[in-house]
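User: Last request for today: this protein with thiamine diphosphate, please.
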Amino acid sequence: MTVMEQQGAYRPSPPPAWQPRTDPAPLLPDAEPHRVLGTGAAADADPDLLRRLYAQVVRGRRYNTQATALTKQGRLAVYPSSTGQEASEVAAALALEERDWLFPSYRDTLAVVARGVDPVETLTLLRGDWHTGYDPHTHRVAPLSTPLATQLPHAVGLAHAARLKGDDVVALAMVGDGGTSEGDFHEALNFAAVWQAPVVFLVQNNGFAISVPLAKQTAAPSLAHKAVGYGMPGRLVDGNDAVAVHEVLSEAVRRARAGGGPTLVEAVTYRVEAHTNADDATRYREDDEVEAWRRHDPVQLLERELTARGLLDEEAIDAVRQDAEAMAADLRERMNQDPRLDPMDLFDHVYAEPTAQLREQRALLGTELAAEQDDQEGDPR
Amino acid sequence: MTTVAVKPATMAQALTRAMRDAMAADPAVHVMGEDVGTLGGVFRVTDGLAAEFGEDRCTDTPLAEAGILGAAVGMAMYGLRPVVEMQFDAFAYPAFEQLVSHVSRMRNRTRGRMPLPITVRVPYGGGIGGVEHHSDSSEAYYMATPGLHVVTPATVADAYGLLRQAIASDDPVVFLEPKRLYWSKDTWNADHPTEVEPIGRAVVRRPGTSATLITYGPSLPVCMEAAEAARAEGWDLEVVDLRSLVPFDDETVCASVRRTGRAVVVHESTGFGGPGGEIAARITERCFHHLEAPVLRVAGFDLPYPPPMLERHHLPGVDRVLDAVARLQWEAEN
Ligand SMILES: Cc1ncc(C[n+]2csc(CCOP(=O)(O)OP(=O)(O)O)c2C)c(N)n1
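Assistant: Here's the final one, the structure of the complex with thiamine diphosphate:
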């Protein structure tokens, strides 16, 4: 059924010369989330890809538990865990080529790390020693964005600029289900479609925006449906199925790179932990629901597939776990060292050239710090 | 003598009670925003309102600040009194378009025919270790927009009284809640909770004779502490709590400065183009002949709000206030 055939659909009476630019039917999202794991299609999945995804998903899980532990020890100001969402995080990074760009939101630390950014540098925002710890150019990862959906128009602009320059670069922009309600989300999608910009939007629908369930966020049949109105395809995928997410994203990336324009992908997943360590999830959801999703675990789904296909034995599982353990140990050790901070850095990057006012304020802080130092040295203790 | 029930309460509790009492008193009052319903807000300031008044009166909205405030405009046009919560200071920015283009000027655009009684509650300011975009002091933007009242309580009693007045106001009020004072406790006269000065009046929190500290919101406790510490130096500082930035109480401020002859304005917001500049200019214009030293400002540095590990260097603390006071003395003697 095409959109035009849907009952009650708005049917304008256009002037005779008017032609729809595209048949909207191909834009409609999948009726059910696309799945590979646990279906016949899984047999065709590339063993190498499966192993890579598995290793990254296991690392991702470990990263989440380690970062959460560091929060409890007061080493991080806050951590928004993506436990349960590792598959889409990791698939997002692996679907990109090196020259492509990633535009993450604050929850997407796993995608950032899987892209090659140092785990400690990824966490500086959440530790609170600096807003962005990494150089965005090194791995082509924009800063983790806290104001929701505001990074999406940036992704469109970058992708558009790359195309203007003749580069076949794709931008992948990540946003949560709640973020799709923001004006910036709509403006970004519209720009991308009008410009046919090589952008892929990945909505991780994890069920909640802090306490607000999806049903209070949107009345659309799915978030992927939102694509249709802008004139881009919408895809619906099981966000806990790393292979399916990778497949759908890779397709969308290929399409964008070939000049086919943007795609909106909705990965249906679940935020198993609370919004952040500061949130009490028992106030707005039942344990049963969480348990049901725990049973649809992205790590288990992959592990089952790999084991069934004989691609994974105890030894291989062990090796992957050890690699994740080593990453976690390194993260723990380095995060347990106090970051070396120079308060004078505050003034270094406000402008390319500090204003006279900032130079004055810098001098004031310098005097204060020197006095603090004197106090400490003069302290007989 | 009558006895009054004076009991301890937090600022957050007083704000909740203000909304509850306003909703009970007037069915036109509606609370809305992100997570204000089931969760009771991320700071729990709307806790219990949805349970008591139903989801139509305390509504979890879609996550869209421009939409929230824009919808509030329409609701107010139809006779409701929306109280909207912006989750954090920096997340109110998407709503700026509505605030500046419509909320602030609807009365003026319609020659008084369509006033908008909207209260925009914004938790603001730093000092709670929040990550990027969770600690902005945006009062200067609001102050620079004619048509808005800009109010910020620093005490538990004011939190209740000013919020009730804001909700009752026929004009839009940007109600800035100093989030680091949410959990500050005060003994509070729960029997006569509304008995505070009206919006637009400043209050002398501590009388003194040497100089006036002019402040508001999160910086009030800092100034009170500085005034205590200053006694050791032989300075007797007066502390004025503005409570309302728009309208501005020239009378109370100038009366104080004329008495003391010296003034320091203290706030977290950036100094350049910040509220202190306006305040200093007003004092100079009105009290020039009474001044024994230039009006000084102690403000946050002119930076995007720093990461939490460095915020203590940015926020004006007691020492920085006392240093300014010392400079006042010096200026006065030379
Ligand atoms: C513009 C803006 N408004 C409000 C917030 C506060 N906030 C932080 S996370 C969040 C919920 C986000 O939900 P969603 O987009 O579904 O992403 P998730 O956290 O589930 O990954 C809110 C309201 C914000 N960061 N930015």
